[in-house]
Here is the input.
Amino acid sequence: MPQLPPKPLLRLAMPKADTTAGGPVSFDALFGRYSGYVAGLAARMLGSGDADVDDVVQDVFWIASRRIAKIRDLVQARGWLATVAMRVVRRKLVRRRFRAFFHASSRDVNVPAPGASSEEHAVLARLYEILDGLPTEQRLAWSLRYLEGEPLDAVAASCGCSLSTAKRRVNAAKHVIDEVFRDV
Amino acid sequence: MSEPSWAVLGKSIDPHWKVERQRAARVAIEQRTTKRRRATRIAALTLALVLLAGGAGAFLRLRKTAPAVAPALASAPVALEREAAAVTVMQPSPETDLEPYAPEKPRRTPASAELSSWRPLAESGRYDEARSALEKAGPNAVRDETADLLLAADAARLSGYPSEAVPYLERVVQAHASDPRSSLASFTLGRVLLDELGRPREATDAFARARKAGGPLAEDALAREVEAASRAGDTTRSRELARDYQMLYPKGRRAKAVARFGGLD
Here is the structure.
């Protein structure tokens, strides 16, 4: 008599939650996955790689640690972290501008771009000099759009404004930057 | 030069986010969390202490002002007890009874806007204000009750107007003779008449009534009766009373003074 193949055993234990797709998010997983992203974002927005970036990362993940219970999805957490990071960076830029108002010498631009050529270094230094002179909202919108490569709707979401406002800010900053680099 | 490719340049920006910086950031976040927890605990503890202190303060204030805001309770048994305690200020001290009367300094309670009538003022030991309020309110402000009459007498006597205390004390003695406090009223009347007003003859009668009522005041009343009779110039009566004292209280506290005033020494 032919033997029937053994029945597959029923799985009693619940499968382990896949934190990359959805479900409860741990702070360790969030920090491990996105701390580099937030640091890079902060460096591009600020144009520096020093203690300012550390401050931004700490601030953003400090807020995240308090809201961790409300973060349900590790994938969607990226957008939320970007929005929080933009707010923290905005505060930092406003403070930096306030401090610059009382200082005679301008800030030394030191963009952390290890793989860039000396010509690219010079372009980046000139770019951040121009960005330092732009209104903070325009600077952030343009940086998100062109340095970060985000689409306009993501720029609007991160800046907490409407799409048309985001477009207007990006275009205003682009106009100034294009004017400068056309002459170079 | 052509316009630079911003996306390429942006990607070249790298903040060197290495393991050490990640670890430092984690440590800093944990420190902040610990600090925040500690600050929250301290704030909660402080708030709890403030609330507790506020509650205790409010409770004590309520306890102090309760009789003042509810003068109608004056006729209640508890208020009567309090009034009786206030009247005990008048009770004779064994050692200083024959000396000029020196009332204890009344205990003052915090001023309160509600203390507008004379009764709560007198109850709280503010006799000057109570007497002024009583004067403004007129004679009908005092009820014909032993406690009220004694309180009014206290207000007058302890604010420096002993003559105004006499009618209240006489009213207790005459109209409330059955009240256990009437002997105290008689004794106090005798002291007011003798020590404050210099009317020893009337004081003799008042002390006699206090003596006849018996009780713990009888011995002192007899001794003061001897003194009053002596000061009134009635040496015969003072001697007779002194002999009575020696017979009733051979080892009495007032023996020496009685013998002196009675002319027996």
Notes: Residues 19-49 of chain B form one domain. The CA atoms of residues 40 and 98 of chain B lie 67 Å apart.
